[in-house]
Amino acid sequence: MKLTQYLDSLVRSELLKMTLSKPKDKSFAYKKTVIERKKKGFQASQYTDKQVFHLNFEKDVTDVLRRLADNYLNVNAVCADGEYVILINKKGNCVMKKTSCNVNCATDTDHNRKKNYILSPDEGIKPLRDMGIVTKDNKVASDMYDKFRQINRFIEIVDDCVKSFPKDTIRVIDFGCGKSYLSFLLYHYLTNIRKLKAEITGLDLKEDVIRHCNDVAKKYGYDGLHFEVGDINGYKCDKTDMVVTLHACDTATDFALYNAVRWKAKYISFPYLAVNMSSTDNLRPRRLT
After folding, report:
1. Is the pLDDT of residue 110 over 60?
2. Which residues contact 209 (CB under 8 A, 6 or more apart)?
3. Candidates 3.30.300.30, 2.40.50.460, 1.10.760.10, 3.40.50.150; correct CATH number of 148-279?
4. Which residues, 6+ apart, have CB-to-CB distance to 211 below 8 Å?
5. When comparing pLDDT for 280 and 166, which is higher?
6. How far is residue 33's CA from residue 42's CA, in Å, rounded to a whole number?
7. Fewer Cβ within 10 Å of end Cβ, the chain: N or C?
8. pTM for this predicted structure
9. What is the mean pLDDT of residues 240-257?
10. Which residues pair with 242 in a beta bridge?
11. What are phi and psi of 286, to 5 degrees?
């Protein structure tokens, strides 16, 4: 089949997101193009080394996709029925393969795959609904599959560490928590799935954000979750079990690691990585300059 035919089949399968990578010509300005479905049509984000340019389109979808894809050798697509990859050689020959099925697929195999998510859309988790990731009928929103998988991946990483946690109460500090959607979901996971008593403190510099997060925690009835205005470097704490630093930047992550070791925290969670500190005996606090 030709590239246009493959792209047309992806559109018919309700294309949600497409990533174009590996330019055919190394001098091509756009190193990567990401296409996402919006409420009306699609938006293409074209990335140079330093900038990003946006293109919106509603009509002639397949033709526009072909013109964009003609510049690349790799096409990765997420559709309502699964994930696909198109490999294109420099002669223009291409092949498409289905690599996985989305969480809402209906076959028995897919049903088993769906159950593997720690945070299932069927549970009606309030933070997931309020974030627009899960709809009122407990399905993943069509443009939120990536975010849904990303959140579950974070919870899976934490789960690998804390599934053998020996105590009934776990204390967590989330540095640079921002709007804290992960703090809310972490609290849900620890209390409702792991059945632990969780005491989570979210820390951020923005007073309005902290005020909003405390209001939301109260609305959810998350009594063990609260938020404070504070600086990572100057925060005082006697002891904690886990330090989360997903949104910290610059030297903030260094201070978070330094404090986690100094407080003898059992776990520390970075983006896409959680470390069991009890197995890192070689780590010692050091002064940060």
Report:
1. no
2. 178, 179, 180
3. 3.40.50.150
4. none
5. 166
6. 12
7. C
8. 0.58
9. 72
10. 172, 267
11. -140, 155
